[in-house]
Amino acid sequence: MDASSTHGAPQPDSPLFHDGYPFDVATWLPPARDVAATPAQRANHQRYTRVGDPAADAVAAMVRRLPHGRWLFELAVEHGIDAVPDAPEELVAFFAEVDTEPFWHDRAQLDLACRVIARTGVIAGFTSLAMLSLMGGYQAWRIVKPLRNGDLDRMAARRIAETTAWLDDITTPGGLERFAAGTKSTLRIRLIHALVRAGMTRRPDWNDQWHHPLNESQVAGTLTAFWLGTLIGPQALGMQFTAREADAVAHLWRTVGRLLGISPNLLPTNSRDHARMLSMQGELEFGRPDQDSIHMARALATAIGPAVIGEGTDLISRTSRAAVTGFMAAYARKVLGQANADILGLDDSPTFQITVTAVATGIRALEYPRRLLPAVTRWQERHGHRTRTALTQRLIRLHHADRSYARHHGAPPTMPAGRNTAGQAPPVSAHPTTGGPGTTRAIQQVS
User: Fold this and answer.
1) Lowest-pLDDT choice from 154-158, 297-301, 310-314, 380-384
2) Which of 29, 158, 215, 216 is 20 to 30 Å apart from 277, CA to CA?
3) What is the pLDDT of residue 44?
């Protein structure tokens, strides 16, 4: 496929970079020169653009090979590998890695990170997730290639709902324990990545310039995008975090990254590591946004208002949708930069940009007394968690979000009838599972 075709043509001379970063977030990050990668680090990073996730890719091949492969994976996710009868060696190897708790795993830090992220609530937290993590990620022209499919516009709202649900799972206290919702959903997403990877590599139109589909470098970059959305983005709306809180958030994403199969060589451990990853990803992925990136961005911008408010036709619904859409676009311009926002076709409303500045100023003013009153911090954590959970449930209900990810596999997530509570199973006649073109929507969970 010709890289200069409509879906793949780079925009000339795109003014993407701000002080060494692909987004206009340098105010809240170390100077790019202080985290610049060495030539050896860049060369090592480049190697991972040609690498997938060997352990998950082997499981994906097993899922495709065995009629009951998906059920075996689900059984291990839900009950552990010991519950799987005659477990295939690919599954044993995968869960041996998952079930080995690293020495650095720190539950106290994870609990603090969950409380910090909960404190960002809906205004700062959800806005940053949608318009920095997701919208910003669409500027990475290679990583959007597996997302291209005919129902992109229709699926945008559901993608927002499912991504929000996943974030709610992993940032709920205890959500990253082995059999908690966050861990289980992350493992399912990892398998989805592998199935999509397998499907993309079989496509005759896959261009080698796009590197290996959903390669390990891109997954690591996506992790940093979510770190940005949970720590850096809320600061653009006036929130403040201590160094201890920032370390805890980085630890949470390190834990999620391990579950996603990211190599220790690529897994950021702190804010400086994430800043360096962002800088390297900027050099590698963000220099050439194309029409696919623009299409993805416009689909998200169009969907965000209906995703939050719904499709009601009354005056209040219409006005609320317009307000959400305008505020989100104005925030995106603040954190991505005006030039990037212009390339992506985002609305440019001075009124909403003034509104974003006013909201940020108000939140910043309230943060000073909040830091002096621990009881207020605890209240904000509880309130933020409640409002975020309420939004998540509303999004799931409005857009029929699939928290089981079954529709991405072509197989139901339920166990075959007849398995007893000890995990023993009768002969399996589960639905066959494929990783064909229909799985291309799957990456929409964490991209």
Assistant:
1) 154-158
2) 158
3) 92
Distance (Å, whole) CA 344 – CA 298 = 7
184-214 burial, b at 16+ Cβ within 10 Å, e below that, comes to bbbbbbbbbbbbbbbbbeeeeebeeebbbbb
Written as six digits, the tokens of 296 are: 């993805």
Count of residues in the chain? 447
Is 352:326 a contact under the CB 8 Å cutoff? yes
The answer to whether the beta carbons of residues 129 and 164 sit under 8 Å apart is: yes
Predicted local distance difference test score (pLDDT) of residue 260: 98
Q: What's the Cα-to-Cα distance from 208 to each of 47, 146, 194, 270, 369, rounded to whole Å? A: 14, 13, 18, 32, 54
Going by C-beta distance under 8 Å and a sequence separation of 6 or more, which residues neighbour residue 228?
23, 25, 128, 132, 133, 136, 274, 278
CB atoms near residue 365 (< 10 Å)? 11
What pLDDT is attached to residue 442? 35
The pLDDT > 70 percentage for the chain reads 85
The structure tokens listed for 358 are: 């006013």
Distances (CA, A) of 347 to 157, 298, 301, 338, 415: 18, 10, 9, 10, 47
Q: What is the number of other CB atoms lying within 10 angstroms of the CB of residue 444?
A: 23
Most distant pair of Cα atoms in the chain: their distance: 64
Angle at 396 between CA 391 and CA 399, to 5 degrees: 115
b (16+ CB within 10 A) / e for 104-135: eebeebbebbbbbbbbbbbbbbbbbbbbbbbb
> For residue 280, with 0-12 CB atoms within 10 Å meaning exposed, 13-18 middle and 19 or more buried, which class applies?
buried
Confidence category of residue 151, pLDDT binned at 50, 70, 90: low
Asked if residue 418 has pLDDT above 90, the reply is no
Report pLDDT digits (tens) over 261-283: 999 999 999 999 999 999 999 88
Report whether pLDDT(15) > 60.
no
pTM of the full predicted structure?
A: 0.87
Q: CA–CA separation, 421 vs 249, rounded Å?
A: 37
Phi, psi of 21, deg, nearest 5: -120, 155
Contact call for residues 440 and 147 (beta carbons, < 8 A): yes
